[in-house]
Design goal:
The protein has 372 residues and is an alpha/beta fold. Helices cover 38% and strands 15% of the residues. It has twelve helices and 15 strands. The strands form three sheets. Strands 1-9-8-5-4-2-3-14 form an eight-stranded mixed sheet, sandwiched between helices. Strands 10-12-15-13 form a four-stranded antiparallel sheet. Strands 7-6-11 form a three-stranded antiparallel sheet, with no helix packed on it. The protein binds pyridoxal-5'-phosphate.
Length: 372
Amino acid sequence: MSAPFIPLSAHPLHLETVQAFQAEHRLPAQEALARFEQLVAAKTGVAFAVAVSSGTAAIHLALKLAGVRPGDVVLAPAFTYVATINPIRYLGAEPLLIDAEEDTWNLDPTLLREAIQDCLQRGKRPAACLVVNTYGTPAKWGAILAACGEHGIPVIEDAAESLGATVDEKPSGSLGDIGITSFNTNKVVTCFGGGAVLLKDEQQAERVLYWATQARSALPYYEHREVGYNYRMSPLQALWGLTDLPELDERVRRRRAVFQRYREELGDLITKMQHEDAGAYSNRWLSSFVFRGERALALQQHLLELRIESRPLWNPMHHQPAFSDVNAYRNGVSDRLFRSGICLPSGHRLSADDQERVVAVICHFFRQATNG
Ligand SMILES: Cc1ncc(COP(=O)(O)O)c(C=O)c1O
């Protein structure tokens, strides 16, 4: 009999939990959305949250709110998931990619400064800077905010992966001028699809809601003065979120424990991992490590043959054919991470026995490589 499959991270479809919640509260659709938004705002330390259909939609609206227009330059990390970058292009703007630093694997503040200076010299102040806390580990926020703040560049925090992380006890989502998060199926907390724009100002929240609901004017008849989007979250997703989000802190504790066990048990097979900067607390969304040698894809294949799911680290955006024309400030860090790193099963439901099996398989893989 084959061993049970160990997923990267999995959320069971516990419909009965949502049904029990709704049987008790009987929330009308609008009320479900409003309550979910209040809870999201409270958990992310912002005044207002607008629930939308995805994190990608949230980034699109956040960039629009920051005033990004066709032809503008938007600074963004090279080492991220493509959803960070695509919405820049939806607005006809130009991504300017910044490589990662070695400590947290996030946007490198030194390269960021260099890029900003070059843009200013060309007379083109970047319209916004997107910052990701990749795999849930906070970026070097102090240095990034200082670099952007000196030139009035709005910072958008893409907290899709980092819900529950903090910097100096400030929740991820509230670290930039505008925040976004995602509730898609693979995140720490899920609505099985969905996202939110996180805002400090009520007028901004109204604006985002207006764009997300087809930009309909507040009139008794249908009038649309701008092009809008059908980006509103469904009340069913909001209900799911109302039952899932209260578990955030406990799930983060479990994910951190999973990361810590890998770290202890894989010992010196690990050559790199994400470090928490001073004052930072990672949610360890995905336990990600660089191992000896450049054998990430072979290890991933070996794990899969033994029914263990894993993922390579991000293939940097400057290697994506869709962005081959985009400028990038590179230092080789994201290239090296991609060649030699891997995300291991990291779910808050991962059992100790299953994690032992993952560790044993990895140790065996490297022993064989040494002997062979
Ligand atoms: C860094 C990052 N940004 C944005 C997104 C987009 O979120 P969604 O899948 O909800 O559109 C994701 C995840 O999917 C992500 O990992």
